[in-house]
Design a protein that fits this description.
By secondary structure, this protein is an all-alpha fold. It has one domain (5-83): Orthogonal Bundle (DNA polymerase, domain 1), CATH 1.10.150. It is 67% helix and 0% strand. The relative contact order is 0.18.
Length: 89
């Protein structure tokens, strides 16, 4: 399990089946992919959960300490598209 049962089911719909897959794609890219390529509506808590899984942290710590960073990265991704650099490798 990467983040939680429901979130993992959603990630599976985008081809992400393991933590290694998530690390390769990156949390921000996976979040955007869920929003754009599926009918799913992932919450920011799901984004924080993905970041936490990649960084081996509690999602609540991610939400408290670096949520602004993730929001900026989402904006950057949407603005620059494929030229976006993943921070969570």
């Amino acid at each position: 399990m990467i983040t939680g049962l429901k979130s993992d089911q959603w990630l599976n719909k985008t081809g992400i089946y393991s933590l290694d897959n998530l690390k390769a794609v990156g949390a921000i890219s996976a979040f955007i992919k869920l929003k754009q390529d599926t009918s799913m509506k992932p919450s920011l808590n799901m984004l924080y959960g993905m970041v936490a899984a990649i960084e081996n942290r509690d999602w609540r710590d991610v939400a408290k300490q670096s949520k602004g960073k993730q929001l900026l990265e989402i904006e950057e991704y949407l603005e620059f598209g494929n030229g976006f650099r993943k921070s969570y490798d």
